[in-house]
Task: inverse folding
């Protein structure tokens, strides 16, 4: 979908003040609102929200979720891998979703650390698209996994904790990945510690270092997931992740309802679905708090906070424990037992 429109003077000044002259966004801005291509958003509610429900959602919720396909054409359904900790998502489950709306690109996520060729092959044979999550310090050794999952499908590299890399090292990684069989390079703000100002340099580096599409996945530790996602769109990022009600691990993500409203694409048929996820939020209690903010400030994997809350640790205990975990970017159960 293309629209004849233009960039406002205000947004042009903001873009130039951030030093992003080289950006070539695939959409522009109109003074009366923001137009966008339907394929810019990817909803990953069932995958990221599954941390709270053990990847089991009520049948009525699943049925209502199909209304989202009217406005979002990229959907991530769940995880697959050799660890049996991400639910039991089958090929039949995938095919049933695809049959519901063939116009939607459905994705599954796998993790470099738990990749299982036998499992993923079953989905590749039926044309499943994949997103592969890789920690910042493992990217350069992960190419064989991307070669294995790429067929006639779409493949995304989700670069976790990207901002642990200095810009020069980040650029080296992006330039290397530019030659891989990858369609989209996603930057995942895994700690939820980014701000629009800190993101600009990484987005600019991507545009200068690769011709591939760029994506952004926000976490809400600082309460800035929506603001950061809007900034990413302003900077010409090609794909943005979101979840209904912001449902996601720990502090959650950019809310689908909020970003659709910002883009002028929220539709009344989603009201019932949004209400269902508001009820889930009351039940599971995701969202930012002082402990997720403290974790973001210390580059701590949010699973530590998630576990401490689930284990009923006191606020005083968590305030003392989180700074001791500084730079613990991978969750380690032994460390948790010793420190938390």
Result:
């Amino acid at each position: 979908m293309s629209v004849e429109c233009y960039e406002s003077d205000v947004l042009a000044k903001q873009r130039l003040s951030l030093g992003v002259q080289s950006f070539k966004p695939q959409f522009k801005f109109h003074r009366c609102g923001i137009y966008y291509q339907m394929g810019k958003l990817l909803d990953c509610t069932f995958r990221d929200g599954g941390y709270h429900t053990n990847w089991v959602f009520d049948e009525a919720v699943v049925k209502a979720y199909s209304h989202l396909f009217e406005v979002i054409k990229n959907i991530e359904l769940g995880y697959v891998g050799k660890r049996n900790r991400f639910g039991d998502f089958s090929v039949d489950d995938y095919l049933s979703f695809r049959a519901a709306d063939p116009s939607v690109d459905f994705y599954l996520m796998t993790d470099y650390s738990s990749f299982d060729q036998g499992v993923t092959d079953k989905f590749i044979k039926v044309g499943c698209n994949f997103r592969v999550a890789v920690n910042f310090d493992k990217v350069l050794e992960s190419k064989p996994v991307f070669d294995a999952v790429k067929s006639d499908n779409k493949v995304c590299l989700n670069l976790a904790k990207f901002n642990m890399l200095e810009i020069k090292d980040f650029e080296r990684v992006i330039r290397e990945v530019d030659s891989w069989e990858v369609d989209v390079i996603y930057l995942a703000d895994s700690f939820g510690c980014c701000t629009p100002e800190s993101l600009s340099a990484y987005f600019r580096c991507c545009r200068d270092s690769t011709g591939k599409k760029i994506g952004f996945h926000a976490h809400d530790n600082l309460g800035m997931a929506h603001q950061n996602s809007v900034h990413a769109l302003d900077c010409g990022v090609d794909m943005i992740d979101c979840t209904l009600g912001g449902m996601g691990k720990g502090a959650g993500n950019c809310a689908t309802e909020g970003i659709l409203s910002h883009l002028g694409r929220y539709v009344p048929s989603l009201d019932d679905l949004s209400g269902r996820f508001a009820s889930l939020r009351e039940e599971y209690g995701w969202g930012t708090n002082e402990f997720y903010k403290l974790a973001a400030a210390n580059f701590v994997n949010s699973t530590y906070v998630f576990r401490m809350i689930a284990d009923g640790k006191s606020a005083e205990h968590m305030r003392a424990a989180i700074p001791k975990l500084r730079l613990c970017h991978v969750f380690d159960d032994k460390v948790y037992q010793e420190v938390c």
Observations:
- Confidence is low (pLDDT under 50) at residues 1-15, 17-38.
- The chain has two domains: 9-283, 290-339.
- The CA atoms of residues 9 and 31 lie 9 Å apart.
- The first strand starts at residue 29 and ends at 30.
